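Hi U.,

Before I forget, here's the chain from the pilot set. I'm dumping it here mostly so it's searchable later in email.
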Amino acid sequence: MHPDYLRFDFAHFRALTLEELRKVEDIVNQAVLDNRKVNTTVKNIEEAKKEGAIALFGEKYSEKVRVVCVENFSQELCGGTHISSTGEIGLFKIISESSSAAGIRRIEAITGISALKWVQDLQDKLSRISTLLNSPVKNIESKLEATLEQISALERELKSAKAKEEEKFVQELLSKATKQENYLLIKAQTEFDNLEELKTTAEQLKTKMQGTIAVLFNLYQDKLNILCVVSADLIPKYNAGKIVAKLANELKGKGGGRTDIAMAGGKDIANLASVMEKVPEIIASI
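Structure:
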């Protein structure tokens, strides 16, 4: 406890709602506004308890205790420094409610000038948000909701457009498949800056391919990744993990994976074009 800060632990089975916290604030602030007298006396602990004094949770008391009585409001055992009337407290503001132990909740609050500064800081933030949203403070909630809805709508449109582009790209890859002796081969160099997009492309290819092996060499900012997809009807004759491992070895890299989808890395970018030309030969050698 400090002159302008306090924390208070109490037994409770759940977190307090916003409405309950507001009710606590209202009760305390009303007592502050009432400017009730605060009297302190030193008594025997048993006598104090019989008179209705409340002991704080988890505190240990000696035989003689200090009793703090707020006129017509509360009577508690406490040894701290106190006020002579509640009006000296000024504003009371709860800033946190949390769990401090199993079944124990904790309220943290500030008072006086600290509480006033807290409110002023909050007003400053609201003012800055108002400026950013180009809206009066009284309308920022509805303006923010509208802005978030616009963002969500744009994200949905972007996601839809991206899905269409991915589908178009996959169809382009499928159309470039060349016939080999026992399978169709898709061979391409890509430039995905995000490997998750590369993996998504692989999964889409997997669902659409028949009798096909796809090998993608993804080169982005001098980082090379090799991805191989083998359609289900070609397994176990062909194994994506073995194919990608062999290709990675040709490019001084390593990797592997499942029989249907596998990924590896390569370091010898200068030799990439040559290895891409030899993909059918490398697959045949496995």
